[in-house]
Amino acid sequence: MKISxxxxxxxxxxxxxxxxxxxxxNLPILNNVLVKTKEGGITLSATNLEIGINCSVRSKIExxxxxxxxxxxxxxxxxxxxNEEKVDIELINKELxxxxxxxETKIKGxxxxxxxxxxxxxxxxKYLTKTQDLKEALSQVVFATSLDETRIEISxxxxxxxxxxxxxxxxDSYRLAEKKIASQEKSKERQLIIPxxxxxxxxxxxxxxxxxxxxxxxxxxxxxFIMDQVEVVSRLIEGNYPDYTQIIPKDxxxxxxxxxxxxxxxxxxxxxxxxxxxxxxxxxxxxxxQKIIIKAASSQLGENSNQQEAVIKGDNNNIVFNYRYLLDxxxxxxxxxxxxxxxxxxxxxxxxxEEAEDYLYIIMPIKQ
Length: 368
Description:
Layout: E1 2-6, H1 7-18, E2 32-38, E3 41-47, E4 51-58, E5 60-63, E6 66-70, H2 71-79, E7 86-92, E8 95-100, E9 103-108, E10 126-130, H3 131-141, E11 156-162, E12 165-171, E13 175-181, E14 190-195, H4 196-206, E15 213-218, E16 222-227, E17 230-235, E18 254-259, H5 260-271, E19 280-286, E20 291-298, E21 302-309, E22 311-314, E23 317-322, H6 323-332, E24 337-342, E25 349-353, E26 356-363
Antiparallel strand pairs: 1-5, 1-7, 2-3, 2-6, 3-4, 4-17, 7-8, 8-9, 10-15, 11-12, 11-14, 12-13, 13-26, 15-16, 16-17, 18-22, 18-24, 19-20, 19-23, 20-21, 24-25, 25-26
Helix pairs in contact: 1-2, 3-4, 5-6
């Protein structure tokens, strides 16, 4: 192997894949990055056996080859080179020789034969969506996934490809987040579940790629995302996602329109006095005063009460929420005005942006 490329391009590619390379006592090569020549450049690859990332880097190829070296070491070293200099890389006797400027470095590595194969996903049925739409959708639902792996289906995010586009949903059984985005191409309807870790990796990569669109391909067990010069392959979670639409309230007794930023402030103040481990804040909706009263009390800390002006229609009502779940939802709703719909203290509360009907957030109440 003998190649030349810019420090900037190489650093960018390594930063994209390096995060996935992890130490593994049973399979140490997972700590490595696979460097492989291809037409027009090299491909950098990393995998943790659940997710695989391939990143193409434009390079001049003088001699073809393939090799693996520790991902963290290579990334840290290349990032310290001068970004205006060319980087020459050559494989000699199982060592990667790196020359740039007036320095020369040797990094020991391993043969590529032991590097796990990243699955190939057939590129037949294509789904196409805008990069910004997918990034926003993932960020608005990923926090609601369950951390309890005994219920494996809800430890991931539902991708529901349907005639109207793509719907993403996540729940931990205490709250639910749903986001609808448009799909650029109409394909057959399908539901699948991607792991939470995959969503986190996608979010990280979507923040740095230049591509305006994301291509998505699937088979029975894998999903492939292609954006810019980056490919992300992930296993799917087996099983059927619960029919969460059954818990979405069909009607409400009280509808509230309130300024989001102001509500966040008063909830944070009340949260300081919530009971440890319960995180409870009480919201009372007063139609006569057109105000929300947000209260919390703790026998150890004291108590707090706030009043927030709002437009309230319907019945007087009250409900108790976990303030962490409440703030998660408020922080992810777009726009400055939000709509809250409440039935009673025993049923879920529904939160939406006044001008963003494509996002829905539901919280189960704390029952007194």
